[in-house]
Design brief:
By secondary structure, the chain is α/β, with parallel strands linked by helices. It has 15 helices and nine strands. The protein folds into two domains: 259 residues, Malonyl-Coenzyme A Acyl Carrier Protein, domain 2, CATH 3.40.366.10; 67 residues, 2-Layer Sandwich (Alpha-Beta Plaits), CATH 3.30.70.250. 53% of the residues lie in helices and 14% in strands.
Length: 337
């Protein structure tokens, strides 16, 4: 049975995240120890206002996500230790990764593109700092048909920056840009009546052209980082496809894999997240079970909106990890019958 791991993005944070799994698993304590006392305290005791600061949110979510991932791997390896690899249909196998925005950094770490947690954390710290410093504008979640939302974007843009930036599900798109354009967008949507809007509590237009200054900095940072070819498919936010396809195309044009990855991750911060397309591509590839790793269950909820009968599990604490491992065992047992 094919498993895809989905890694949580910014917005999933909450006070106390990671504390339970830290207490239960030694391997999680090691991750938090590497992250340091400040990040640990933010995760366990940070208030809502502190945790919504981009320079705090991003390293905290990355740390909790990687701690959950390590605990999951430890338990998953016990479950699969006795698998009969001559009987492919009965095997539980992690075959693909995807992460929403910030979560793509956890996916790249899991796939060994980023070689270790400490390297990933340093990148994420800088990304969060730069996105907080250089960002402007805002974001609005729009509920309705994508085509209707994008039509309103065109009407509202005028001479400002305004784009659809998170294509989350068939009925949810996040729009980002200049605040005055976002105000026009909300007014026009209200007038149209078939699109509902919710202003998000962020002071930045993530994944929009307003992130251009951050894009350049990330390109230089990734060029200076030792990167590896992915050990499993990682589905890119910017292209919705396996990043290996992107690398292979660039290599044909004489661009090295490291340069290609730097280019792709620089692009990621200023272009839309095609999450609905990623999920459809994963479903098409034959994934049987999706497991969300990290705080919250946002991605599991979106998965159900994309395909209602999809198998989803999640890991954010000791209880959900135990439930997920039990569910996987049940899937395995049912296959063997």
């Amino acid at each position: 049975m094919k498993i895809a791991l989905l890694f949580a993005g910014q917005g999933a944070q909450y006070t106390g995240m990671g504390q339970d799994i830290y207490n239960e698993y030694k391997i999680c304590r090691q991750i938090f120890e590497m992250a340091g006392e400040e990040i640990t305290n933010w995760c366990f005791f940070g208030d809502k206002e502190t945790l919504r600061r981009t320079e705090v949110t991003q390293p905290c979510i990355y740390t909790v996500t990687m701690a959950c991932y390590k605990a999951f791997l430890e338990e998953f390896s016990k479950l699969t230790m006795g698998q009969n690899f001559n009987s492919e249909n009965e095997n539980l196998e992690i075959v693909s990764y995807a992460g929403f925005s910030l979560g793509e950094y956890a996916a790249l770490t899991a796939a060994d593109v980023i070689g270790d947690f400490k390297t990933g954390l340093e990148i994420v710290k800088k990304r969060g700092k730069w996105m907080g410093e250089f960002g402007s504008g805002g974001m609005v979640a729009a509920m309705g048909e994508r085509a209707n939302i994008l039509q309103i974007v065109e009407e509202a843009r005028e001479d400002s920056i305004l784009e659809g930036v998170n294509f989350n599900s068939p009925t949810q798109t996040v729009v980002a840009g200049d605040k005055i354009a976002l105000e026009r967008f909300c007014e026009i949507a209200k007038h149209h009546g078939h699109v509902k809007t919710v202003v998000l509590s962020v002071g930045n237009a993530f994944h929009s052209p307003l992130m251009e200054p951050v894009s350049g900095k990330l390109y230089d940072l990734f060029l200076d980082t030792e990167l590896n070819h992915p050990n499993k498919p990682v589905y890119s936010n910017a292209t919705s496809r396996d990043i290996s396809e992107y690398i292979a195309q660039d290599e044909k044009d004489g661009i090295t894999a490291s340069e290609s990855l730097a280019k792709l991750m620089a692009l990621q911060v200023k272009t839309p997240v095609y999450w609905e397309e990623i999920m459809n591509n994963l479903i098409e590839s034959g994934i049987d079970i999706f497991i969300e790793i990290g705080p919250g269950k946002t991605l599991s909820g979106l998965a159900k909106k994309i395909k209602h009968d999809i198998n989803t599990l999640h890991v954010e604490n000791a209880e959900s990890l135990e439930h997920t491992i039990k569910a996987l065992k049940d899937f395995q047992d049912n296959q063997e019958r």
